[in-house]
Specification:
By secondary structure, the chain is an alpha/beta fold. It is 31% helix and 17% strand. It has ten helices and 15 strands.
Length: 325
């Protein structure tokens, strides 16, 4: 309990970093995938992760040119600063720089567009504001464990997927909860506002996958806030992506993953609709990043310690294959 409380205090001190900044220029082995589509009929959208633009393509490059033409010649990217091993501030890092799997990808994109991996202005964006920040032009893109789904591709443009995982339950080790099942009856479950986790909980209540008595009303701006509530005993379980849950379990030995993955989640880089040239550029970067071993090196550095079990690799250890529309 002392460890959990200490972690809760540490996280609480970091939480203000996730609030919107001013606009100055603008795991366990995966179970059977059960992709749930909300806010869009199945016949309207199939395989949203395969709907991005191919890296090649004619036409001008207005979005990329506008980035290069800035007086402050930096890429503006919305990220997380509190997701361990994805995008976070390590208090033991004397440089004070953000680090993690998503941060490595941002540096690679900046290098390809501007010739300088450090030509980046990072903006901490809460889970609940990712789409809004893109649409309002506060950022050029969001690289923040953002799942590609049918409702979101109507609001923002996505790259091809760069990571695949799924939703999973996180709960105290001593809990009787066994996963996304009837053991959640009468339990309080936390998820982030605007997340696919909440969408799946809501859908599960409707279709009977979750008991009707499961309380899903607790939502927070950032998914890490759920871990704090779990540590303080304010909720019984958390639903988030398995990759993030694995990192949170590594932070707090009093919690663990319960059951297998119960959805398929493909992460993509989100950009403003209409910025086709930027989407194509990012997709070219992703192809090269995977082919030259950059993706695998980043995975080994940041995610292997929490995602893989001994000699057994997680399904997430292999980058998803890109398929374009």
């Amino acid at each position: 309990m002392a460890t959990a409380c200490a972690l809760a205090l540490t996280v609480a001190l970091l939480l203000p970093l996730t609030q919107p900044q001013s606009h100055d220029t603008g795991a366990a082995t995966a179970g059977q995938g059960v992709t749930r589509v909300t806010h869009a009929k199945a016949e309207d959208c199939k395989n949203p992760q395969d709907q991005s633009l191919a890296p090649s393509g004619g036409g001008g490059t207005p979005a990329v040119d506008a980035i290069k033409a800035r007086k402050d010649r930096r890429l503006i990217v919305g990220v997380d600063t509190n997701s361990y091993r994805w995008g976070y501030l390590d208090p033991n890092n004397a440089s004070g720089e953000l680090e993690g799997f998503d941060i490595d990808l941002v540096h690679r994109i900046a290098e390809d567009i501007l010739g300088d991996r450090d030509a980046v202005q990072f903006k901490a964006i809460p889970t609940s504001r990712r789409i809004e920040a893109i649409q309002k032009g506060e950022v050029d893109m969001v690289v923040r464990t953002m799942t590609i789904n049918c409702s979101r591709i109507k609001e923002v443009a996505f790259s091809a997927p760069y990571f695949v995982t799924g939703q999973q339950i996180l709960a105290p080790k001593i809990s009787a909860i066994t996963g996304y099942d009837k053991s959640l009856a009468g339990k309080k479950v936390c998820s982030a506002q605007g997340s696919t986790a909440y969408d799946n909980l809501e859908e599960g209540r409707k279709n009977g996958d979750l008991p009707a008595s499961t309380d899903i009303r607790t939502t927070v701006p950032n998914q890490l806030d759920c871990l704090v509530k779990l540590q303080l005993g304010q909720v019984d379980a958390v639903v988030t992506d398995g990759a993030l849950a694995a990192s949170q379990a590594a932070q707090d030995p009093a919690v663990e993953l319960k059951g297998g993955l119960f959805t398929d989640e493909y992460y993509g880089v989100a950009m403003k609709q209409g910025s086709d040239d930027l989407v194509r550029q990012v997709n070219r970067t992703l192809e090269n990043y995977i082919e030259d071993g950059g993706w695998k090196a980043s995975y080994e550095k940041w995610l292997h310690p929490t995602m893989d079990q001994g000699d057994k690799e997680s399904a997430s250890a292999t980058p998803p294959e890109a398929r374009y529309k």
